[in-house]
Sequence to fold (845 residues):
Amino acid sequence: MFKRWLRHTTMATMVALAPLAATAQETPKQGGDIVVTYKDDITTLDPAIGYDWVNWSMIKSLYSRLMDYAPGTPNPIPSLAESFTVSPDGLTYTFKLHKGVKFSNGREVVASDVKYSIERAVNPKTQGPGAGFFGAIQGFEDETGGKTETLSGIETPDESTVIFHLSRPDATFLHVLAINFASVVPKEAVEAAGGDFGKKPVGSGTFILKDWTIGQQLVFERNKDYFVKGVPYIDSFKVEVGQEPLVALLRLQKGEVDIAGDGIPPAKFLEIKNSADGAQMIVDGEQLHTGYITLNTRVKPFDSVKVRQAINMAINKDRIVRILNGRATPANQPLPPLMPGYDKSFTGYAYDVAKAKALLAEAGFPDGFETVLYSTNTDPQPRIAQAIQQDLAAVGVKAEVRALAQANVISAGGTEGEAPMIWSGGMAWIADFPDPSNFYGPILGCAGAVQGGWNWSWYCNADLDKRAVAADSMSDPAKSAERTVAWGKVFTDIMADAPWVPVINERRVVAKSLRMGGADNIYIDPTRVINYDAIYVKQ
Amino acid sequence: MIFLILRRLVQAALILLGVAAITFVLLYALPADPARMIAGRSATAQTVANIRHELGLDQPLLVQFSTYLSNLLHGNLGRSYAQKTEVWTLIAARLPATLVLMLAGILVEVALGLTLGTIAAVRRGGFIDRLVMTASFVGVSAPQFVVALLLLYVFAVTLGWLPMSGYGTFAHVVLPAATLGVLGAGWYARMVRSAMIDVLNQDYVRTARAKGLSSRRIIFRHALPNAILPIIAMIGIDIGQFMGGVVVVEAVYGWPGIGQLAWQAIQQVDIPIIMGVTLTSALAIVIGNLLADLVAPLIDPRIRTR
Fold:
């Protein structure tokens, strides 16, 4: 689970927002069974626990939530909720549920199921990685601290009403209710599964899990009772696991596979792209991803802002893009281009070896210095780390590359004074939901600069933290544009202190067979990865 | 015989205990914190502490190990961190696939190795001998991944005779078993060849020849049974090897065995699964060697009298 969510955490892909027009030209057809392949096993389908980019799409389709997203877009819309209201102070959210929605065990979904499901996701006993997202709900600390197993901030006055009381305004709250961890599950099924709910899922989503042969395949069938008519389009999808990406691609070309979930191995990319059907088989889109180098502000000489700025100028990002076969674009700020708040006019630090050397000399290192660069040991990350090493050598900085197993790199990053520089490739941040706030707290804010945290620059700027909190409190939808600008400014201002070298924004690639229909952005959906509800088979 | 079995069982228990202890200490020494990984990047320190407590990771190493051992004695391998499922369920679901692959692979390599080794020994010094020895050298030194992809490309993609990946029918097992067999056959061929040459130089073979027995009878009746002994021991070792070491072949052919399970668990630092698979493989090695020791006397009476 871990490795994959690090690399591609969920909601990964954000795409050009025109494609809905493209879908309109072709009417999706009902019916058809498809085959999807992945290299790794599916870990769990328990929505309170699942947190990798493969199970993320499946969990989305097995369960419903109060909120969801318009297919292929980052825009939240009511789902299980028929309607909702927000109090003027942004502290109370009232949801009315659709009536007659049924779990796949036949029981109707009621308000208390929503309350139970979120309390379950927050409960430390569940060991779910999503608890933190619900931090704004009143009573959160009491539950995570083990004082109680319920959330005082969730009220269910009747079977179809859920009221949330927040302890602080949270502009991302609707996103939080659309995240997988907020999926609604029936208590009796969770308890009957005896800790094995992840293998025996019961939900009220578009699909039902029909069969799971561990290590081999999962079969999902259309939920005939799904409360929205005409959704989904396909009758079933079979997920075959343990499939080597290269073999999956060969099978796709032979027509045995419809979606090769792991995409196209770099070595085969150009061959496929230049083949006759290649253009129709490759889905290639931007995602909410930034790959960066962290510069540990608590380790010498990176405690000097001039040194950090010099390093920013020393890295040849275009060359790193070439190493990735062009499947990325150079980055100049922490936010990826498709994230609201991204500043197109911001240019960041240009690649300038002479200026970098001059800055280093100014900082007192005319002859450079020796340091250590950590990286994970899976291809192509060590190669990128070597490219960075060469760039650093060109300005006199001698960096020893330590390519280690991912878990060890993360551990070094979270230990104060341990890792001077880390190339984040393979572990880089991809947004959990399409909101800029998701790119700050744990990786650039003071809260993450703690033992075992994810702020590997150990950068803590109280002033920016204050501005971040203020921006997140602007929950009034009318202030949304203002909020986005405020957030964007936080990320460009942070670059003056240069705790990171933003290096690339990586693209995501999926391969699909010629019989698959639907716009590209539902295969690399910003909130679902593959949107099984929206894809269809051309007859 | 009974004493041999009893002695071996006691040895086996000690070996397994040793494996459990070493693996446990090695995994404990990892800098990666499973609780931190389970908790995810947005977790508070409190959540991480809670999870660590739930998993018993805040206990001293010795306490954790004794808890693990006592669970083990009750047949409980623990629960996977990532999948939140009993480790034994996960291993049991994959064990049959690995056993099938193991048996098929051993069958191919023994059949191939015996045939080639015998031919090479009989034609010692000739062209065929050199050909077989060269081929076996290539076989033992070729990377698994390359051979697997090569066979797959020729027989599944180009010729379309066999399925590319999957599990369930006889056709599915052919390519993975052939990959393992081709790679392992080299060792067997070399071993059979040298053992056969050794035997063919013995006095009794000369006597048999002098009596006018046909060379076929000499080879199959007199020489081969005597040359086969080291093979039995090697099969015992292979059982263990294939249990833990077929990760690459399983990956290429999408074979749902425990090699894949182990590989994924290592990437996820899912310690209970890593422990479980290691112990299962160790058990397989022990059983394999025990079987080899039990079968050998049946074939060679000389061992029985010892």
